Amino acid sequence: MSEKLVLGKNDELLETGETFDFDGFQVVRREFFAHLNEPSVSFNNYKFYVNAACLSKFPNTEYVQVLVNRKTKILVLRPCQESERDSFLWCNNSKGKRKPKQVTCRLFFGKIISLMDWNPDHRYKLTGKLIRANGQHLIAFDLTATEVYQRTYSEGSKPRTSRIPIFPSWEQDQFGLPFEEHRRSMQVNIFDGYAIYAIKDNPKTDDNSDAARQEFVPISSNGGMRE
Q: Alpha-carbon distance 90 to 98, whole Å?
């Protein structure tokens, strides 16, 4: 699909034909730009939550499933019905106004921290992309492309979380992914290698207790649940 270009009276268009090559170019990461109105999710202090932009993309959705692909490191939010297994209430509804719901999920939080080798004391924010895959609209998040907000501790005072994100050292000399790799990175097949995680609104408990236990259900290749 080509975008329609509108040229002004004094605009000049340089025609390069097939000689322009995207090899060597990197697509600048979205995290480097302001994105207040784009969907995002956060992992912070054993909590998982979305932002208001996620809710606005699906104004009639109260429940979603959280899918994680351990191989590709992609997290997906899939709108669903309350009756579906491992559905997750992602918002509070007060006087007709929906607000993001912060859910304590110590085991899920720990699994993601372990998978990504993150620091549990920091806040991690991921910017998502609205996609259509397998006939469904989803919000997909690349777990490897995160903003990290460090939390510092000073004796005699409460912990403070930085408002300025940091990035891994290996990313500091890069703008983003190479063009071709970027184009392939968000091609999502939700029936290939994903697991649906149960996100439960747990009280703060010992991780070995029944209340803290959560499960995930692998998705079979035909889209059905494997018991």
A: 10
Which of 118, 121, 128 lies closest to 67 in space, CA to CA?
Answer: 128
Which residue has better confidence, 130 or 21? Answer: 130
* 3 state DSSP class of 227: coil
pLDDT number for residue 32? 61
- As a whole number of angstroms, the distance between CA 171 and CA 168 comes to 5
Contact of 202 with 104, CB cutoff 8 Å: yes
Rounded CA separation 50/39 (Å): 8
Contact by Cβ (8 Å): 202, 105: yes
Residues pairing with 86 in the sheet: none
Predicted confidence at residue 210, as pLDDT, reads 40
pLDDT in tens, 31-78: 566 566 889 999 999 999 999 999 999 999 999 999 999 998 999 999
Reading phi first (left if > 0) and then psi (alpha if -120 to 50, else beta), residue 61 is in: beta
Q: What is 22-91 written as a DSSP string? A: -TT-EEEPGGGS--TTS-EEEEETTEEEE-HHHHHHSTT--EEEEEEETTTTEEEEEEE-TTSTT-EE-E
Give residue 211's pLDDT: 38
According to DSSP, residue 188 is labeled: -
* C-alpha closest to that of 40 among 123, 108, 150, 119: 123
Question: What is the separation of C-alpha 34 from the centre of its chain, rounded to a whole number of angstroms?
Answer: 16
Query: Across the chain, how many H-helices and E-strands are there?
Result: 3, 16
Higher pLDDT, 79 or 213: 79
**Residue 111: per-residue pLDDT:** 95
